[in-house]
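Just wondering, does anyone understand these C-alpha cells?
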Amino acid sequence: MLSARGVVARGAVFGLVLCALLAPAVASAACGHAYQESPKKNVSRGRAPLAIGDSPMLFALPNLADEGFRANARGCRQWPEGLALIRALKRKDRLPKLVVVALGSNGTVTKGDIHEALDLIGKRRTLGLVTPRESGGGAGHDAALVRSEARKHRRARLLDWVKLSAGHSGWFQPDGLHLTFDGAEAMARLFGKLLKVLPPPR
C-alpha cells in the first residue's frame, strides 16, 4: 500500500510521464528537473546504495526508496549526465559501495561510458548495469553492449531489465518504455537483488 508520500510522489511523476507521452514540446521543457527519493530503510553499513536513471525510472522512485536505495532520475538524462553525478559525489567523498546505472533509453551507451563509470567508482565498489529498453519496448545494440561489458568486469553486475520485462506488457505504458505500478514494483525487485553485495546493516 502506498503511503501519502508515495501517492503525492507518484502523482507528480505520473504528470511528468504523461507530458513525455502526449506533448513532446512540454516534455522537452520538463527534462530539466531531477527527482530524488531517500532510502526508507538501512540495508548496509555505510551510505545507501545509489540508483541513477532516466524517465523510465521516474515512476519507480518510491519503490526503489522502499528497497533501500537513494534513487535519482530525470527525464531525458543520458550517460554523460549520469557520469557527472557520480563524479560530483566522488569529489565530495560521498559515493556508496553500490551504484546502479539505468540509462540509455534516451540516447546511446558506449564502452567508454561504462569504463569511465568503473574508473570513477574505483576498485572497492560495485557498478550495477541495467539493460535499457528502447521506445516501443524493444531491445537494441545498447542492451547487447551492457550485457557484454557486465560480463567482462568483475566489479560490474548485470541487471537484465530487457530480459526480465519481455512479455510483460502490463508493466508499461502504451509506449512500451515508461512504467505502470506493476512495472515499478518489478524494477525495484530486480534492483533489490543486488543488495546482497553490500555489508549487512548494523
Q: What stands out?
A: The radius of gyration is 16 Å. Residues 1-5, 14-29 have pLDDT under 50 and may be disordered. The chain has one domain: 4-197. The first strand starts at residue 34 and ends at 37.
